[in-house]
Amino acid sequence: MSGIVVRNFQRSALDRLSPLAGAGVATVHEAIGRVGLMASHLRPIYPGASIVGNALTVTVAPGDNTMLHVAVELCQEGDVVVVVPTSPCEDGYFGDLFGGALKGRGVRGVVLEGGCRDVRTLHEMGFPVWSKAIFAQGTVKETLGDINLPLVCAGQRVEPGDAIVADDDGVLVVPRARIDEALTAAAARIEKEERNRLRFAAGEIGLDVYGMREKLAAKGLTYYDDAAAYAKRSNG
Amino acid sequence: MSGIVVRNFQRSALDRLSPLAGAGVATVHEAIGRVGLMASHLRPIYPGASIVGNALTVTVAPGDNTMLHVAVELCQEGDVVVVVPTSPCEDGYFGDLFGGALKGRGVRGVVLEGGCRDVRTLHEMGFPVWSKAIFAQGTVKETLGDINLPLVCAGQRVEPGDAIVADDDGVLVVPRARIDEALTAAAARIEKEERNRLRFAAGEIGLDVYGMREKLAAKGLTYYDDAAAYAKRSNG
Amino acid sequence: MSGIVVRNFQRSALDRLSPLAGAGVATVHEAIGRVGLMASHLRPIYPGASIVGNALTVTVAPGDNTMLHVAVELCQEGDVVVVVPTSPCEDGYFGDLFGGALKGRGVRGVVLEGGCRDVRTLHEMGFPVWSKAIFAQGTVKETLGDINLPLVCAGQRVEPGDAIVADDDGVLVVPRARIDEALTAAAARIEKEERNRLRFAAGEIGLDVYGMREKLAAKGLTYYDDAAAYAKRSNG
Amino acid sequence: MSGIVVRNFQRSALDRLSPLAGAGVATVHEAIGRVGLMASHLRPIYPGASIVGNALTVTVAPGDNTMLHVAVELCQEGDVVVVVPTSPCEDGYFGDLFGGALKGRGVRGVVLEGGCRDVRTLHEMGFPVWSKAIFAQGTVKETLGDINLPLVCAGQRVEPGDAIVADDDGVLVVPRARIDEALTAAAARIEKEERNRLRFAAGEIGLDVYGMREKLAAKGLTYYDDAAAYAKRSNG
Amino acid sequence: MSGIVVRNFQRSALDRLSPLAGAGVATVHEAIGRVGLMASHLRPIYPGASIVGNALTVTVAPGDNTMLHVAVELCQEGDVVVVVPTSPCEDGYFGDLFGGALKGRGVRGVVLEGGCRDVRTLHEMGFPVWSKAIFAQGTVKETLGDINLPLVCAGQRVEPGDAIVADDDGVLVVPRARIDEALTAAAARIEKEERNRLRFAAGEIGLDVYGMREKLAAKGLTYYDDAAAYAKRSNG
Amino acid sequence: MSGIVVRNFQRSALDRLSPLAGAGVATVHEAIGRVGLMASHLRPIYPGASIVGNALTVTVAPGDNTMLHVAVELCQEGDVVVVVPTSPCEDGYFGDLFGGALKGRGVRGVVLEGGCRDVRTLHEMGFPVWSKAIFAQGTVKETLGDINLPLVCAGQRVEPGDAIVADDDGVLVVPRARIDEALTAAAARIEKEERNRLRFAAGEIGLDVYGMREKLAAKGLTYYDDAAAYAKRSNG
Question: How would you classify residue C6: left for phi > 0, otherwise alpha for psi between -120 and 50, otherwise beta?
């Protein structure tokens, strides 16, 4: 069933995508309706990286990095390689040799539902990876997987050419068909957040900025001056 | 049942509390008899922060940050906001907008049995959070919780006005009634540790500093020069 | 049954071991045939440390650090202390006082299937620990364990005098009898990796460097130009 | 600090409590406002048990069952013994000898934030335990804990004399002061659930029984006949 | 963004699907090329159930079962309801009232990436649920989700109308377009397994049945009569 | 490095071993000094099985069951097959076909640091497995492991020919050299437990049976009649 390699997919222009990295995972996630966020067990191997790019998808057998070798040849400037074992595995699929090869081809980073090794060297060369584990365990080259078929990574469906946004807050997938919407909505959200930020900076608080007071009162929110007042009321 | 907001509680003077931050979680925890340490899954979102303050307690519904908005208004200089979902949830309850609002009010930090987002910005603004996860997942504003009622956070009971000490070693709660005792005991412990440190620096070791040798011999501790000697003895 | 202390064991000369730290966990692990890697839940308490040394093994009762005190006296320059509770426990067995004592004796670091505390001070003093948790929970001094008997740490058998290599990628044990083999194999691997690195830097990829193309074709790897071509083929 | 044994506490009459076992954990939990439910990692060692009783609380050191021996003497007919290690530990604190002793004294069961052993024999003798793990690991008798002080078990505060309800759905604590309220509310809830059950059995559904339709429409719930209709609408 | 309800989807005839339940999860999973198996944390609330049906998909907010109420009305004979929170949550979304309602409509069972309660009653009424947790925690009715849109459950993509097969081995999704292929392949596999079973029963073993001996020898498999022979060879 | 198959090892006579199964995991574990107990994540796939046998050890690559096929041929009456992946993996290495083959050869059961499938059929045929997970995920036949070399399973060292005892309490390894000691000690322990059981049945309790009262008093155990007495004392 596996052993399928689809060479090409529709990529988005990088200058079109780049505002999504500027906006960041949390903001874009909000902007597109709170969908597409990968599970929190994917963590960056070092803090501070922030990327966006076109998803190139790879499935690998547990403990087998064959398909990563196949993938290298297909990578292009601005890709983010999304790697998922066909069953749970935290072996060290990815290390500095791969990092150098992908960086040389302009790949932005790797999202890996598995283990990463050589993390210090990868940090030094500035090639970011979001992975499930840091684990040096080696892999073999025996079993085929697929490249550029849709897959599920950390709870989210990814199709080749979807936009991947990743930073210290985690990893987000934006379906290719929704990228324009994401750009517009993220820009609007940033503008709105900036407005709110000014109001907050001026001392206003969310209860007023978001008009929550009446709604909360209607739901039964009840204030007591102190514990004594509450005790009196609840016993009274 | 929920929807209770107790506005005020007894706060301790900040200059009184501050030696507890200086002593640190591990030392104060020892000093007060090894109670009050929250579970190790609460981790700081960046290393190096060290705080103490008065606990302001907030319960939130899973996936719902309504009560955090209510809490902002009640916060005062020197508070530490302790946030606990009413059932396990790692959604991103807290981000940079809240961070800015709380920092502006002098809040020392947040302890959150849930998820935190915007961690890079929070690091840049120097507002520390100890959380169960880093997760950008958004929350809604539909369901009430309580403010300033006692709660359980990461295995420890917290009452409003308890002292919260947090640093790279974790999070500790010191009941308000025991703060003076904690201060005295922590000072004594630091003095004792300093004396021990000098003895250790002079080359003494715990077996002598703590007078353990006789007790260990009585328990049956047996030394062998090497594996051969042990093998001979255990077979002999 | 416990309470056994074996004072001495065969140590390897430190200048003989040091190339293993230079090679690093991932490389030595590959070089010796992918054995001996401890589980990924052991993490360094701060990034950047890289050590090698002779294993001194300690078992401790859950919540009891008695045997660590016994171990201090036996430590020598270049040792790595491997500490394992006799049942799962994440209490804070190790802190800055122990760190100072061990550092003063030339110990290279600690591998601890338990909890570590005072992590900031340990970082400042440059004494590395790889542990299962960061947890300030105190321990008692009541129950005996063993020193310098073989044990299992994070899934790997360790005998006193085995070489321990540890860095940001994790912790590796090299049996004493295989140290020469490890040195030779690691050197060879580094040389080979360097050759490969040059080829990769020159633009070659693993499919060619490792001669994978024919083997993959034989396994049935099939390329399609794009999703449309794949869809056509798979339906055709 | 520890070593406190409080012999007596206020117990509720057993025939007063027994309707809570009949109602079951899920129903009583709803009835008292969804508080007091212990974390889901506490599981019964065999299915089918259903108990209620007065909480007798015990803290134990990690890997040390001293205080369980102390507790046996204090147990009375209808007690439920709640056992919590002072730091996380899954050792086998409880086995068939304890089970026999407690059963002989009329204890209803044990809630144990640790490990249980001899589970087959306990099943055969019909003595139920809700525990975090099944683990035969032995414990020592060296370190004191406390009996009948308040504690936190699996995320919930328990005071001696609180009612503990436990069945296949988990473990619930009902504060002693709220037992009457719980009885009344549980009875009312059962009556209401029975009424609803009849309506459901007659083919009605929750949307109508709970009057949800208008509220959902107001929130924007939108029906489409099929995927084609939805696709048309969302693109239209 | 949410609040979409698609009423209808293409269902497969139940007598067509039923052989998949007979074949079981493990066999069908093999037959369709080892895809579609949900993660192992989904476990049946009682052993022995074995179902197949048409997936009706529901997303719910964390701690909110609104959409389950909406779903009841849409269920038909032979459906399997697949329920996924929009972020990780183990609250008790599903209990006996829902179980009765769904059973009355001919629903085969529920697959729930959350918590289940009333498990004893559900067992007694013979309504099976595969869930992530058993947890009585109640939910609210405030926030919308979606019905019959594609979703990801326990790592697998599910579309409305896909076939769900579930038994003691776990939960499998078979895309609707592949059901015929699954039926044919499962039948072939059963036949082949039966043939193999006869050969195994006659004393043959996999090395011969699957023709592995030569391949293994080529890979370097080496037999030694005993440990002494191996030691001699590896040192020789 | 792998691909080693050691055909034979020293087995213990089955009638010599069988009292260890009668004594059970918890008792034998106590009898031999509380060593050798595997981690609690190994659970039986069905309750009630109780076995003892000679360990035949197998390492497998992640997601690869090649070596299980090799092992079948080497199994003899009374063996217990211990299977460990070379890195963490929960794939379904073992199912009913293997179960039938091993049962036919008199194998007592399987201990598997991985996943098991066909659990219902295995239950029906009465072939017990203790595994880390129940997971139907298929495996490949590409990569070699070793047979009958020492390995680590669930935290414990196992050598071929060690005795494996397994029941509802978990899995225990008894080194071959200690089997006689284990038999004697287990018999003594059972006798002692029986004596104690009679005393407990007669109403005595552990405090007296084990002579703990004086020791506890010396450690500072302090009794208070009730909470009021304790409050008075601790404040007085």
Answer: beta
Q: What is the pLDDT of residues A156-203, one digit of tens each?
A: 999 999 999 999 999 999 999 999 999 999 999 999 988 988 898 888
Q: Which has the closest alpha carbon to D117: D104, D131, D103?
A: D131
What is the Cα–Cα distance from B219 to B214, expressed in whole angstroms? Answer: 9
Q: Measured between alpha carbons, how far is residue A56 from residues A10, A82, A119, A158, A161 in Å?
A: 10, 6, 22, 9, 7
Tell which residue, C59, C49, C96, C51, has the closest CA to residue C77: C51
Torsion of CA D102, D103, D104, D105, to 10 degrees: 60
User: Distance from CA of residue F40 to its chain's centroid?
Assistant: 9
CB of F33 closer than 8 Å to CB of C1: yes
- Could you report the predicted ipTM of this complex, rounded to two decimals? 0.95
Interchain proximity F7–E226, CB inside 8 Å: yes
Confidence of residue C99 (pLDDT cuts 50, 70, 90): very high
- How far apart are the C-alpha atoms of C11 and A203, rounded to whole Å? 65
Q: How far is CA C44 from the centre of its chain?
A: 10
Q: How many Cα atoms within 13 Å fall on the side-chain side of residue C73?
A: 17
Residue B216 CA neighbour count, 13 Å, CB half:
25
- Decide if pLDDT at D236 tops 60: no
Strands B109-116 and B92-94: parallel
Output the CA torsion sign for F35, F36, F40, F41: positive
- CA–CA gap between residue A111 and residue A55 (Å, rounded): 9
Q: How far apart are CA F102 and CA C80, in angstroms?
A: 44
F107-141 pLDDT, tens per residue? 999 999 999 999 999 999 999 999 999 999 999 99
* pLDDT attached to residue E201: 85
- pLDDT tens column, D94-136: 999 999 999 999 999 999 999 999 999 999 999 999 999 999 9
Reply yes or no on whether the pLDDT at E200 is more than 90.
no
Residues of E engaging F, defined by a Cβ cutoff of 8 Å:
24-26, 29-30, 34, 37, 40, 43, 47-48, 50, 167-170, 172, 193, 196-197, 200-201, 203, 205-207, 210, 212, 215-216, 219-227, 229-230
Interface of C with F (CB under 8 A): 1-2, 32-35, 37, 39, 86-88, 150, 152, 155-157
Residue F221, amino acid: L
Distance (Å, whole) CA E54 – CA E163? 5
Q: Is the pLDDT of residue C236 over 70?
A: no
Whether A236 has a pLDDT exceeding 70, the answer reads no
Rg of the Cα atoms in chain D = 22
What is the crossing angle of helices B179-201 and B14-23, to 10°?
Answer: 30
Which residues are CB-contacts of D53 (< 8 A; sequence separation ≥ 6)? Answer: D14, D17, D78, D79, D80, D107, D108, D109, D163, D164
Q: For residue C55, what are the β-bridge partners?
A: C80
Helices within chain E (DSSP H only): 14-23, 25-31, 66-72, 96-104, 119-125, 179-201, 206-209, 213-219, 227-235
Query: What is residue F151's predicted lDDT score, i.e. its pLDDT?
Result: 98
HEC states along E163-206? EEEEECCEEEEECHHHHHHHHHHHHHHHHHHHHHHHHHHCCCCH
Task: Look at chain C and count its residues.
Answer: 236
Least Cα separation, residue D40 to chain E (angstroms):
6
Give the tokens for residue E205: 């073993």
**CA distance linking residue F29 with residue F173, whole number of Å:** 9
Helix count (H) and strand count (E) of chain E?
A: 9, 12
Helix or strand run (H / E) with residue F20: helix F14-23
